[in-house]
Design goal:
By secondary structure, the chain is an all-alpha fold. Helices cover 63% and strands 0% of the residues. It is built from 28 helices and no strands. Helix 6 runs parallel beside helix 8 (138-148), helix 9 (160-180) packs parallel to helix 12 (235-248) and helix 19 crosses helix 22 (444-453).
Length: 650
């Protein structure tokens, strides 16, 4: 009866049936398989689809009856058909192939899952010419992810479970490469659903050596778009290769779908110590397109807003962000630089509010967290062009609290803390800036608020402002040589570097020099000036001498400033103490000494006169040459018989 019924079967069914031998252990009948392939290649495309459906039904029938030899024959035949037929006619036939692969992956036999993965990887290498919108990959992704989660305990490394994990990772890599090479917009793996399956499964294998293990240098050298790593037996390397392919293929709008499950996975006690987190973020930053790197940094900064994070955890996350910023090149600047700095400033403000309002806060952890954000700002600014660094400093200065800058009675504690933090941020960005012309650096929107804050009642704030001025004025790295008040015997002693000022700088000093000197003058006579304040003011005046003092008019303005400060100190117009007056005289003497040595050949009489006054002070008025670096005065009281000729240079 069976033979009679077989005569009435369609030809394609008879050809399929003939490839199975009477003894299934003999394997596929090669000659009849060739006949089947020839028929499939020469007949109409609908016949190929029917062959696929028939083979799918036969495979399901054999699986149900545990005829595994016939199952292997079916997979060998389907692989041969896929490689023999034209890619244009594989569309519907591939759906039957995917269904057959799913049937094997759903079985509980590891060798069947491995065989299905091998066939699927071969299918992924085929370049199709038609779109595959109907291709059902979602379920097969779940199956490969489930295989990747197979236990990884030490006792399982030599049994079939390791093979199952490896097959699962290879299958995911095949899906990534298959969809990446699909130019017709088929199955999209960059969705929340698919990413929530794939990313944790890959990270679990990427974490094979434990979350606290140091990074593997071999993994860092793997390039994107390398061939299939099918001969590797290391799940960690396979997962690394697959994740690089996955992140390399994502776009601007799809990156967040991959980053969210990655960050969620790291939140499970994997930020501290940050070895594994750095390894993951480094992989992301080196794999994605460089122009999308700023978006990854924004997503990391947004993740800091989680209210359940403590300051120590946030500091660890910032350490990871710092590495990500360092990896990003100049293409990672992005169109929304101010938005990135606004987010960082928002985190600083939140930290300050928490520092003031919360009773259980650890002050040391909060300060460490704030310093980490400031360092990140400086690191991020390295990749910015100079004009954007100026814009960043202007933006930060615009966020200063309006109250309490001048009048200490009107301030709130949070405003004073915010003011200090913002100035530290400006300093961090300014240290990455290279001044070319003072006119381009000191724009009105930066210069005016900076000089206003220089008169703050807080000495620490005044020192911060002067340090920012040092960074922006100094173009020849002379700040370290002029950081403290000192008297020199020759200009070669300091090894200063200077050059003739540009016309733009001289024009800037003609227009805005009086404003700058006015604020420096008032800062010199502020109350509660500390040693650090006088050292900072000396450094600012010394840098101005070096940078623009080569011009006669600019040098004349500096000398007028010094003589005016000296007259004010002699008359004590501000009613300052003897100690404060002596410090002002010391600053004036030190700057006069520097001017005389720098312009020794131009104005030798000036240097000779300055040295006469300095030597006379050493003999008769040592309190006027107080060394501000020490905590003790040489003499705290003025001599009763002091004379004006040991005080003034006029």
């Amino acid at each position: 009866m069976t033979c009679c019924c077989a005569c009435f079967k369609p030809r394609y069914q008879r050809l399929v049936d003939r490839i199975y031998p009477k003894n299934s252990q003999d394997g596929v009948v090669k000659s009849r398989l060739e006949n089947l392939c020839y028929y499939a290649c020469t007949c109409s495309p609908d016949k190929l689809d029917k062959i696929g459906v028939y083979m799918e039904n036969r495979l399901e029938h054999d699986l149900a009856r545990k005829r595994y030899e016939n199952v292997m024959i079916s997979m060998e035949a389907i692989d041969k058909l896929l490689s023999s037929c034209r890619s244009r006619s594989l569309n519907l036939f591939a759906s039957s192939f995917i269904a057959m692969v799913q049937l094997l992956l759903e079985s509980d036999k590891v060798f069947l899952k491995s065989r299905a993965t091998e066939s699927f990887l071969g299918f992924c290498r085929i370049q199709e010419e038609t779109p595959s919108y109907h291709r059902p990959y979602t379920h097969i992704v779940r199956l490969f992810c489930a295989m990747s989660y197979t236990s990884n305990t030490a006792a399982d490394w030599e049994d079939d479970r390791l093979k199952c994990r490896i097959s699962g990772i290879k299958g995911l890599d095949g899906i990534v490469r298959k969809t990446a090479s699909d130019e017709h917009g088929g199955f999209n793996i960059y969705t929340d659903q698919i990413a929530s399956y794939m990313v944790p499964a890959l990270l679990m294998n990427f974490e094979t050596n434990g979350p606290n293990a140091e990074g593997d240098s071999e993994l860092d050298n793997i390039e994107v778009n390398t061939p299939f790593v099918t001969n590797s037996d290391d799940p960690c390397k396979l997962a690394d290769n697959c994740m690089r392919d996955l992140f390399h293929g994502c776009g601007y709008s799809t990156l967040k779908h991959l980053m969210i499950p990655l960050l969620t996975y790291l939140d499970e006690d994997r930020w501290q110590p940050p070895y594994f987190a750095k390894k993951c973020i480094s992989l992301v930053m080196t794999s994605i397109n460089a122009q999308y790197a700023f978006e990854a940094i924004k997503l990391l900064l947004n993740h800091l807003a989680n209210p359940s994070f403590n300051p120590k955890l946030k500091t660890a996350i910032l350490e990871v962000i710092g590495d990500a910023v360092a990896i990003a090149n100049t293409a990672a600047i992005g169109p929304s630089v101010l938005d990135v700095f606004h987010k960082m400033l928002h985190h600083l403000q939140s930290s300050i509010e928490c520092q003031i309002t919360s009773r259980n806060v650890n002050l040391a952890d909060e300060l460490e967290y704030q310093n980490a954000i400031i360092n990140i700002m400086g690191t991020y600014a390295v990749n910015l062009p100079d004009f954007q660094k100026i814009d960043i400093m202007i933006f930060l200065m615009s966020k200063m609290p309006e109250k309490g800058i001048i009048n200490p009675e009107n301030h709130l504690e949070s405003e004073w803390l915010l003011l200090n933090i913002i100035l530290k941020c400006v300093k961090s960005v300014a240290q990455k800036y290279t001044t070319v012309h003072l006119r381009d650096t000191f724009k009105n929107s930066l210069r005016d608020p900076l000089l206003q804050v220089s008169l703050s009642p807080d000495p620490d704030v005044r020192v911060l402002v002067q340090e920012i001025l040092h960074t922006l004025i100094d173009r020849h790295n002379n700040t370290d040589r002029l950081r403290e008040i000192q008297f020199v015997n020759s200009r070669d002693e300091l090894q200063l570097i200077w050059e003739k000022p540009h016309k733009q700088d001289l024009s800037f000093m003609n227009w805005h020099g009086p404003q700058l000197y006015q604020y420096l003058f008032e800062s010199l006579f502020k109350e509660q000036n500390t040693d650090a304040c006088y050292n900072a003011l000396y450094c600012t005046l010394a840098l101005l001498c070096v940078e623009v003092g080569s011009d006669f008019d600019s040098l004349l303005e500096i000398i007028r400033f010094l003589l005016g400060a000296q007259d004010t100190a002699v008359n004590n117009d501000f009613n300052r103490s003897t100690e404060e007056v002596a410090r002002v005289h010391t600053v004036v003497a030190a700057v006069f000494n520097l001017v005389g040595k720098i312009f020794l050949f131009t104005f030798p009489e000036l240097d000779r006169h300055v040295m006469q006054i300095v030597n006379k002070r050493r003999d008769e008025g040592k309190f006027l040459l107080h060394n501000l670096c020490s905590s003790q005065f040489i003499s705290k009281q003025k001599p009763a018989n002091h004379s004006d000729n040991i005080i003034t240079y006029a």
